Each structure stands twice: as C-alpha cells, then as structure tokens.
Amino acid sequence: MLTFIKQIFVWWNQVTIGTRIETIFFGKLVGKDSFGNKYYKNKKGKRWVIYKGEIDASKISNEWYSWMHCTKNKIENIHDLKKYEWQKPHQPNQTGTDNSYHPNKNNEKINKKYKSWKN
Fold first, then answer.
1. Which structural domain range is residue 33 located in?
2. CB atoms within 10 A of CB 39
3. Domain membership flag for residue 7
4. Per-residue pLDDT of the chain in tens (119 residues, 90 and over written 9)
5. Residue 21 lies in a domain
C-alpha cells in the first residue's frame, strides 16, 4: 500500500501512476539499453524513458541520448558500439555521498597561495 501511495505523490523516485497509465495506453516500446531502461514513443512523437530502479538521468546510455533529445548525430551512427577495455562502467551520480569528488579529499593540509588576515 505504501508503494502505491509513493507512486502517486513521489515523482522523483520512481515511475508515477500517470506515466504508467500513459505508457500502457499510448506508449510504444522502442527499445531497451544495457542498464535495463525502457524507451517509449507515442504517435505524436513524445519520447520518454522508464528507468530500471531509481530515477537518475545520467543512466541514459550514449546510444539513446541522441534519440531522447531528437537529434541526429552522424558520428554516433558511424562508429560501432563496441566497448573498449579502458571504458569504465556507469556509476550513478555521487553528489552528496561520501564518494563525491573533493579536490583536497586525500590531502589533510591545504596549501593556500595566500595568508588570511584573521588568525
């Protein structure tokens, strides 16, 4: 019951009831990506994605980014979609977590180029 209530009111965490109804009645499945996200399109040309798990816009793979934004990228169509050994797997947005980037995270002492006027 809590999940149902969450789907009605909490739009930023999972698929809402409205999106689910629109997908059932008007959506045509176009494809899936490597993360398990499903991409839909309706007759009017509106496009949307149903994320697998928690919603994170950075989960849209490179192959589907241009499609979602209705752009035609000639370079994307030319190159093959094979993954190289140096490519890293996707990580969700780390902002606000302990894994977020801090320039001086590992250095305890910060070397400033100036001296503060207060002691």
1. 2-76
2. 19
3. yes
4. 666 666 666 666 677 778 888 899 999 999 998 888 999 999 999 999 998 887 888 888 877 888 888 887 665 555 556 677 888 887 888 888 888 877 766 655 666 777 777 75
5. yes
User: What's the confidence (pLDDT) of residue 94?
Assistant: 85
Taking alpha carbons only, the member of 82, 31, 33 closest to residue 53 is 33
Domain membership of residue 50 (yes or no) is yes
Task: Answer yes or no: is 98 within a domain.
Answer: no
Total structural domains in the chain?
A: 1
Per residue, the 3-state secondary structure of the chain, as one string, reads CHHHHHHHHCCCCCCCHHHHHHHHHHCEEEEECCCCCEEEECCCCCEEEECCCCCCHHHCCHHHHHHHCCCCCHHHHHCCCCCCCCCCCCCCCCCCCCCCCCCCCCCCCCCCCCCCCCC
Q: Are 6 and 48 in contact (CB under 8 A)?
A: no
Choose among 92, 90, 93: nearest CA to 34: 90
Please tell me the predicted confidence (pLDDT) of residue 92.
80
